[in-house]
Amino acid sequence: MAYQESYDNAGLIVGDANKEVKNILITLDVTKAVVQEAKNKNCELIVAHHPIIFKGLKKLTGANYVERTVIKAIREEVAIYAAHTNLDNVKHGVNAKISEKIGLQNLQILVPKQQQLAKLSVFVPEEKAPELKKALHNAGAGQIGEYKDCAFESKGTGSFSPSEKANPTIGTKGKPEEVQEIKIEVIFPLHLKHSVLEAMRNAHPYEEVAYYLHQLENDYTDVGSGMIGELAIPLPEEDFLRHLKETMNLQVIKHTHFINKKIQRVAVCGGSGAFLIKAAKAHKADAYVSADIKYHEYFDAEDKLLIADIGHFESEIFTNELFYEILREKFANIALQLGETVTNPIKYY
Q: What is the model's pLDDT at position 200?
């Protein structure tokens, strides 16, 4: 849940976290019909993209579709789990799946998040440095983009004087000591802080570990909003929209007027993405594919890019495939079923 937005409500929403699960139904939304489908298919858990409870519930009287859905899920003993903006924000998440469908290459997060990384500097006797570094890497530290096991080392002399109550690994109580040490520096995502520090302490030979921890301002290029990439071959605008219709299985596309330029560099954002129009222009995208664009927001294109609103449901429906891939890799012994209930509330005439 480390990467969900503050307004979001991802995680287990209905159900007992300790209950055994053998069958999972995957869906974009949860409705009463979806809960019934799960029950009919003997699925103990629904995994959805959109949380059925987004704002707090004060009553469960069945007054609206959210309350009715939750009541039915509880009655039928079907648990509900949602991965929403936390799945939107990761490098291999919702926007990567859209990019894959469209055929984009050289993908990058459009707006990387900041203040999501920390740097650990820890001092260790020279002969123990390889062991400590390995432990830190195994805990998830040292991953920078497509490079893993990253670290920086520098040599120096550590000095200390153990007290009479200390239990020193090196040196004698009450006497000054100097040791040739290595300073190891690694970067890691902040949500791994506990596991990285625990690995450090478990692998370190000293009774008291000398270390520094700093939160970084660096962009975290694996986490953030939207995605941008390139088509292998530039397409005229009309051909691009036709390609978009075919690859995303669309009935209709709302778009800005053509500006007589070929489309190659494409930015995408699943769901409501008007907040990234400015970023798409700043990254010199030829087109921006998203949903829920309001009337006045189309003017923000300013003849600099083609905005294509493909619909909220349509932009995220392939998230079901993404869930399937993730869950199949992690839980090979659980039966997975893609939901067949169409939950799109919008129809086209």
A: 97
At 168, list the tokens. Answer: 């020193």
Q: How far apart are CA 17 and CA 35, in angstroms?
A: 18
Q: Which H helix or E strand runs over 202?
A: helix 193-203
Q: Which of 184, 188, 183, 185 has its CA nearest to residue 141? A: 188
Task: Give start-end residues of each CATH 3.30.70.120 domain in the chain.
Answer: 115-218
CATH 3.40.1390.30 location in the chain: 11-86+318-338, 94-111+224-310
DSSP letters along 71-116, please?
A: HHHHHHT-EEEE--HHHHSBTTSHHHHHHHHHTEEEEEEEEEESS-
Distance CA 235, CA 277 (A): 21
Mean pLDDT of 51-79: 94
The whole-chain average pLDDT of the chain stands at: 94
Residue 27 CA to residue 238 CA, distance in Å, equals: 32
List of residues 6+ apart from 348 with CB closer than 8 A: 251, 252
CATH class held by domain 115-218: alpha beta
| Cα–Cα dist 282/305, whole Å | 10
This prediction's pTM: 0.87
Q: For strand 177-189 and strand 104-113, is the pairing parallel, antiparallel, or unpaired?
A: unpaired
- The CATH homologous superfamily of the domain defined by 11-86+318-338: NIF3 (NGG1p interacting factor 3)-like (3.40.1390.30)
Percent of the residues in the chain that have a pLDDT greater than 90, as a whole number: 84
Mean pLDDT over 98-112 rounds to 97
The answer to whether 36 and 108 have CB atoms below 8 angstroms apart is: no
pLDDT band at 145 (very low <50, low <70, confident <90, very high): confident
* CATH level 2 (architecture), domain 94-111+224-310: 3-Layer(aba) Sandwich (3.40)
Asked if the model's pLDDT at residue 294 lies above 80, the reply is yes
